[in-house]
Amino acid sequence: MLEKGMLVNKVALVTGSSKGIGAGIALELAKAGADVCINYSNSRGDAEQLVNQIKSLGRRAIAVRANVAERAQVIEMVEACESNLGPIDILVTNAVASVRNSILETKFEDLQKTVEIGIFGVFHTLQVVARRMVDQGKQGTIIHVSSPHARTPFKEAIDYNVAKAGSHHLVMTVANELMWHKIRVNILEPGWTDTPGERAWYSDEQMKTMGERMPLGRMGLPEDLGKAAVFLATKAAEYIVGAVIKVDGGQFIEGGPSWESTSRHQ
């Protein structure tokens, strides 16, 4: 049973957490008692607003700008988090980039950027934090936000498909290695989630209509992912390692879309 305050004295770092799913996860971790390091690349205002929101809950929080594709910036981000909040107990790798085009339209530089953030950025963050957890003898928790795109090659999403498939396998390999250090690594897989990123592709009316077509009558919300992340970070999940937990309202039950899929999904 999950209780308020069960993550008190825990420090969390959530990459790509100024808005969307990352912000939802950061906020729910804070509600559960964790102090949170908010990572952003460009959205400083959103990150600072989230920091203030977390502080209003009585938790500590800082915002750190870093492009996770740049290893030196990742190291600086982790050091800033630890010097201000303490050693990291919970890491959530959520930072992502996406252009989503067909093979006929995708530019190499767009593919390269998505892969650098979505795969290399995950590698840098995981490695830097994991090494510190091992050196400190911490039994930490690492959560990666993946996607149905890791398994299903949706059309018109070349860069995103490649990045999510690669990062998914990377994280599973890490789970297989770090569990021997008592560090649990798991994956959250969102379905179609109402985020600013999705609203860049669709109108409010389209989002409303598509939400009504979902099995549970609505699209996912960032806090749905946040609640699942809180569960994975607590002792209630202490025997769960290398799991892929779908938070999709039944959209991809048994590995296939439960309703007519579109070309773009979160």
Q: What is the CA–CA distance across the termini?
A: 29 Å
Biggest sheet, spatial arrangement of strands: 3-2-1-4-5-6-7
Helix content: 40-55%
Approximate shape: globular
Number of domain units: 1
What's the CATH architecture? Answer: 3-Layer(aba) Sandwich
Series of H and E elements: EHEHEHEHEHEHHHE
Low-pLDDT ranges: 261-266
In percent terms, what proportion of residues is strand?
5-15%
CATH domain fold name: Rossmann fold
Average per-residue pLDDT, rounded, comes to 91
Please give the count of helices. Answer: 8
- Assign the structural class, choosing from mainly alpha, mainly beta, alpha/beta, alpha+beta, or little secondary structure: alpha/beta
**Radius of gyration, CA atoms, in whole angstroms:** 17 Å
GO molecular function, one term: glucose 1-dehydrogenase [NAD(P)+] activity
Organism: Ammoniphilus resinae
InterPro entries: NAD(P)-bd_dom_sf, Sc_DH/Rdtase_CS, SDR_fam
EC number: 1.1.1.47
Description:
Mean pLDDT is 91; it is low at 261-266. The protein has a single domain, classed as 3-Layer(aba) Sandwich (Rossmann fold). The protein has eight helices and seven strands; from the N terminus they run βαβαβαβαβαβαααβ. A seven-stranded parallel β-sheet has the order 3-2-1-4-5-6-7, sandwiched between helices. The longest helix has 29 residues, at 108-136. Helix content is 43%, strand content 13%. With 266 residues, it is of the alpha/beta class. α1 (20-31) runs parallel beside α2 (44-55), α1 crosses α8 (222-233) and α4 packs parallel to α5. The chain has helices spanning 20-31, 44-55, 71-85, 108-136, 158-178, 196-199, 204-212, 222-233; strands at residues 11-14, 35-40, 61-65, 90-93, 141-145, 184-190, 244-247. The two termini are 29 Å apart. GO terms for molecular function: glucose 1-dehydrogenase [NAD(P)+] activity. This is Glucose 1-dehydrogenase. Keywords: Oxidoreductase.
